[in-house]
């Protein structure tokens, strides 16, 4: 019973690590695909700086894929999450291809 619980816990941790690593890879690839002038136009750090941040996050995520609650994984998740939650929407607004235009069926909200 006890070893089964630990095996289950290890599998859940591994799945969580793989999901977080996929998020970090997505952030890095998305950063690679963006134009460099859009970063400065959006008022964010330069593209090489964000490539370094998301690249380091991806490497840390890969190295700690079996320990998703380690300090290195937390740092990696924060780097990728800041890019995905703040920088990516700002770049999409600058480039004019944002999916959400803040307009509801009766006007802006």
Automatic annotation (TrEMBL):
Transmembrane segments: 6-29, 49-65
Pfam families: DUF2516
Keywords: Membrane, Transmembrane, Transmembrane helix
InterPro entries registered for this protein in UniProt: DUF2516 (IPR019662)
Protein name per UniProt: Uncharacterized protein DUF2516
């Amino acid at each position: 019973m006890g070893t089964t619980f630990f095996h289950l816990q290890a599998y859940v941790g591994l799945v969580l690590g793989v999901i977080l690593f996929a998020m970090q890879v997505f952030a890095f690839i998305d950063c690679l695909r963006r134009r460099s002038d859009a970063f400065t136009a959006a008022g964010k750090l330069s593209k090489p700086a964000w490539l370094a941040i998301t690249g380091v996050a991806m490497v840390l995520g890969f190295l700690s894929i079996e320990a998703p609650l380690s300090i290195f994984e937390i740092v990696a998740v924060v780097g990728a999450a800041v890019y995905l939650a703040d920088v990516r929407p700002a770049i999409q607004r600058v480039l004019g291809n944002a999916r959400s235009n803040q307009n509801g069926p009766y006007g802006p909200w």
